[in-house]
Amino acid sequence: MSSLAKPRPRLLLVDDDPLIIDTLSSLLAEDFEIVKAGNRADAIALLRTSQQLAQLALIDLGLPPQRNYPDEGFALISELLALDPDCKIIVFSGRDEESYARQARTLGALEFLVKPVQLSTLRQALWHALQSRDKARAHHKDTALSRIIGESPAIAKTKTLLQGLAQSRFPVLIEGESGVGKEMVAQALHELSTAASKVPQSFIALNCAAISPGLIESTLFGHVRGAFTGAQSAQAGYFEEAGEGTLFLDEIGELPLELQPKLLRALENGEYQRVGETRSHRVRARILAATNRNLQREVQAGRFRADLFHRLSVLRVRIPPLRDTGNDRALLLEHYLQYYSAQMNTQPFRLSPEAMRSWLAYDFPGNVRELRNIVIRMLTRYAGQIVGEAALKEELESDQDTAPEEQISTTSTATLPSLKELPVGQPEISALEGGLSLPAILRQIERDYIAAALQKSRGNMSLAAKLLGINRSTLYNRIETLERNGASFGNNTEGPAPGGN
């Protein structure tokens, strides 16, 4: 059993009487982490600048500047639930009026207690509220939309749009910057689409940037035995494996131009052929695609077919970058703090008020992926501590994509070795009769070029990606794919960012 104490639930106390606040704080401090405020404005400001919301709230209705009226307390109930719909609120009032109790419950308060109240009764009410909250979260925590963290208008609009698109079978193009969570949105669409049928369906994902261009066609459509060197047996493609579920084509902008007509034919005619076969198969899966590129500009530049773009973008979802989602940065901080501190068996850190303001003001150019990585890194350094503004800024600056100007100007213009200069290993020989394994040779060449770029950039992933002419997320994806196939890059990489896209 862990020697670490279980984190205490956070309780917000709001009352204009300092004696009541101090007394309750002292009596409840053993079981709850107490947050105190004397009026509505201070309570909301305190939560907005904190890295954690309160699970419970115990509030008086008669608050300044109108102590003799319940208006401020009623307004506070609404604001707390707008900030966190899961917060459980107990009203603790000196006015024993049925109309007040009824209005408080109508606004969302769980219970109405009248002062004075026995400590045992108050404790029982608080624990009942906490259990009610935990049950509600357990019921909703694994739904598709609940995994998209955020309550800003931009995220709320996205969730509403996803619900509207769920039952359509038309293709959906998911657009957004790297790191905003496009695959999570695709999974949410898949789950919403299949929820009504109550029949589990496959979700098959292919990252078009992380697979060798020579293998994409057979991966998508499958192949018959002998279709190419190394095809020792027939194999189903992703279209077939997806069945009536969802086929998600991530980084669709990276799909080679020569393969785009075949994908277009599958989408327009609902048919495809395995490589080396003349018989057609029916497309049954719903197609979702995602990109961090501006595909309309790619069409204008001749790098993407206009007809395929229009076929993929019958329906479109634009995922907002983190800089446009306001205080969702605080919700994501709390989410990842709780998740990774539990995984790492450690106490979460806390941000000072000044650090929290810096956190909320930071743009997070790498979006949710960057935010998550910063939380993980800070947990390894500051577990159980209060992190100040200076320490936080060091962490934020260390996650910037770009190196100093001098380094970029000298390194980004460097050239990579020619193909014959690379130390390509002996090509793998197929154990079966059939000669050289082309996929293995291509993986080896790709591995050596990436290793050369990493060496020249001294492990800086952004500079290595510039040298290779690809974006950083594509480089991460290709490294992950190569490592899954046995390649090793030693200590040359800064480590691919897990998840998120």
TrEMBL record:
<dbReference type="InterPro" id="IPR009057">
    <property type="entry name" value="Homeodomain-like_sf"/>
</dbReference>
<feature type="compositionally biased region" description="Polar residues">
    <location>
        <begin position="407"/>
        <end position="416"/>
    </location>
</feature>
<feature type="domain" description="Response regulatory">
    <location>
        <begin position="10"/>
        <end position="130"/>
    </location>
</feature>
<keyword id="KW-0067">ATP-binding</keyword>
<dbReference type="InterPro" id="IPR027417">
    <property type="entry name" value="P-loop_NTPase"/>
</dbReference>
<feature type="region of interest" description="Disordered">
    <location>
        <begin position="396"/>
        <end position="417"/>
    </location>
</feature>
<feature type="domain" description="Sigma-54 factor interaction">
    <location>
        <begin position="148"/>
        <end position="380"/>
    </location>
</feature>
<protein>
    <submittedName>
        <fullName>Sigma-54 dependent transcriptional regulator</fullName>
    </submittedName>
</protein>
<keyword id="KW-0804">Transcription</keyword>
<keyword id="KW-0805">Transcription regulation</keyword>
<feature type="modified residue" description="4-aspartylphosphate">
    <location>
        <position position="60"/>
    </location>
</feature>
<keyword id="KW-0597">Phosphoprotein</keyword>
<dbReference type="InterPro" id="IPR058031">
    <property type="entry name" value="AAA_lid_NorR"/>
</dbReference>
<dbReference type="Pfam" id="PF02954">
    <property type="entry name" value="HTH_8"/>
</dbReference>
<dbReference type="InterPro" id="IPR002078">
    <property type="entry name" value="Sigma_54_int"/>
</dbReference>
<dbReference type="Pfam" id="PF00072">
    <property type="entry name" value="Response_reg"/>
</dbReference>
<dbReference type="Pfam" id="PF00158">
    <property type="entry name" value="Sigma54_activat"/>
</dbReference>
<dbReference type="InterPro" id="IPR025944">
    <property type="entry name" value="Sigma_54_int_dom_CS"/>
</dbReference>
<keyword id="KW-0238">DNA-binding</keyword>
<dbReference type="InterPro" id="IPR003593">
    <property type="entry name" value="AAA+_ATPase"/>
</dbReference>
<dbReference type="InterPro" id="IPR011006">
    <property type="entry name" value="CheY-like_superfamily"/>
</dbReference>
<dbReference type="InterPro" id="IPR025662">
    <property type="entry name" value="Sigma_54_int_dom_ATP-bd_1"/>
</dbReference>
<dbReference type="InterPro" id="IPR001789">
    <property type="entry name" value="Sig_transdc_resp-reg_receiver"/>
</dbReference>
<dbReference type="Pfam" id="PF25601">
    <property type="entry name" value="AAA_lid_14"/>
</dbReference>
<dbReference type="InterPro" id="IPR002197">
    <property type="entry name" value="HTH_Fis"/>
</dbReference>
<keyword id="KW-0547">Nucleotide-binding</keyword>
